[in-house]
Specification:
Shape: globular
Strand content: under 5%
Radius of gyration: 19 Å
Distance between the termini: 38 Å
Largest sheet: none
Structural class: mainly alpha
Number of helices: 12
Number of domains: 2
């Protein structure tokens, strides 16, 4: 894993987020930002894994998994963005920033480029493990594929709830976690440390591989995922969402704390 590869990855991710900013300014729909981020991040990581200096044979496993992640999530976000005028989380930020919104959005997206670089660094570190295949590699593959399936199921259940006009999605996985899609997104990146430590892999690359799941948990659960979305849902649904919060775990799937409350009202839909 050479310095030239790392610098190239960082520059490529920065340019991708500059493109996302330009697209948002042109369309006015911030949802396309996450679409471009997902496809761009997946492609850059895969290219770095397959052509970066010093990566091991595990890159041939991790790269397709990351591409599969990008294809599934990016397609989902693109289809969603095509149906709405804007992403409510970004819209709230733009309102808060006021006249300075364009400049601050550009800087915000460059911070996202740095976050993507952390994911790439962790993936490259995991691929450096020189040990032969072990049982932990199999667990890592199952964790990654299981996370992709779980996130797809979460998205489908939410889509079905919206189509049925449910105020707040409580069906399936959404009855165990208020953000199961975010949980499975975090879980996908947990596969990297498993690859890195399989067969007793070297310590420092293994520790670097931990950065991806740690960062994703912090961002999704405490920064750009759960907090702004829950604030939006509270403004929109008030006491009904407060009751949902009291019953269902915020991030990690856990059994609900009490019997489900009625959710038969039509009209306002979950934007999670």
């Amino acid at each position: 894993m050479s310095l030239a590869v790392l610098v190239s990855v960082l520059i490529a991710l920065s340019l991708i987020m500059a493109l996302a900013f330009a697209f948002q300014q042109r369309t006015g729909n911030s949802g396309w930002v996450d679409t471009i981020w997902t496809f761009g991040t997946g492609l850059v990581i895969a290219l770095a894994l397959l052509w970066g200096a010093g990566v091991g044979w595990r890159s041939l496993i991790i790269a397709p998994l990351v591409l599969l992640w990008a294809l599934r999530l990016g397609s989902h976000i693109a289809l969603r963005s095509a149906k709405v005028p804007d992403d409510p989380r970004y819209a709230d930020l733009m309102r808060q920033w006021g006249p300075d919104a364009p400049r601050r959005l550009f800087l915000f997206l460059q911070v996202q480029a740095v976050a993507s670089f952390v994911l790439a660094l962790s993936a490259l570190a995991a691929a450096l493990n020189p040990r032969p295949p072990g049982w932990l590699d199999g667990v890592a593959i199952l964790v990654a594929l299981g996370a992709l399936v779980g996130e797809a199921i979460s998205d489908r259940q939410l889509k079905a709830a919206k189509a049925a006009g449910e105020r707040i999605c409580q069906r399936g996985l959404w009855g165990w976690s208020r953000h199961p899609n975010y949980f499975f997104e975090f879980l996908f990146w947990c596969a990297l440390p498993l690859f890195a430590f399989s067969g007793g892999g070297p310590l420092w690359p293994g520790l670097l591989s931990l950065l991806a799941p740690l960062q994703m948990y912090w961002l999704l659960a405490h920064v750009s995922g759960v907090p702004p979305l829950e604030a939006h849902m509270l403004r929109k649904h008030g006491a009904a969402f407060e009751a949902y919060q009291a019953r269902v775990s915020v991030f990690f799937p856990l059994p609900p704390r009490s019997a489900p409350f009625p959710n038969t009202a039509k009209g306002a839909k979950n934007d999670a």
